[in-house]
């Protein structure tokens, strides 16, 4: 797998050069104080320069969560427009009302009581 020329170019930039190039794209970057910020800003700059470039997402393996020194990672490619996780369906629990259903029920009772009192008193 070959490295894109854009990735090579951005990887060789200094922190000040990364920040100035991001400003050229209209992004106001934070100060680069550690490797994590530097890596994030490099990825952001690469995406500004060439939006078609995608990155591998590292996923921690939960089986080895007790051993901090031997974290195992697996990588998976993700498309640019793909959401990180599939949406989880919301289940309706029997006996529970959603906020809108509860509001409609309360408003129905509030408007029904005066009507019943009016009918009972005047009819």
UniProtKB/TrEMBL annotation:
Keywords: Membrane, Transmembrane, Transmembrane helix. The chain crosses the membrane at residues 103-121. SUPFAM superfamilies: LEM domain. Residues 7-52 form the LEM domain. Residues 62-96 are annotated as: Disordered. PROSITE patterns: LEM (PS50954). It holds the Pfam family LEM. InterPro entries: LEM/LEM-like_dom_sf, LEM_dom. This is LEM domain-containing protein. It comes from Paragonimus skrjabini miyazakii. The lineage of its organism: Eukaryota, Metazoa, Spiralia, Lophotrochozoa, Platyhelminthes.
């Amino acid at each position: 797998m070959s490295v894109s020329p854009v990735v090579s170019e951005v990887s060789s930039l200094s922190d000040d050069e990364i920040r100035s190039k991001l400003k050229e794209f209209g992004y106001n970057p934070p100060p680069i104080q550690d490797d994590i910020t530097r890596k994030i800003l490099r990825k952001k700059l690469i995406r500004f320069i060439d939006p078609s470039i995608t990155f591998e997402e590292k996923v921690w393996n939960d089986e080895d969560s007790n051993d901090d020194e031997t974290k195992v990672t697996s990588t998976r490619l993700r498309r640019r427009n793909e959401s990180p996780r599939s949406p989880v369906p919301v289940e309706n629990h029997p006996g529970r009302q959603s906020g809108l259903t509860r509001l409609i029920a309360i408003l129905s009772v509030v408007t029904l009581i005066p009507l019943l009192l009016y009918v009972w008193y005047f009819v």
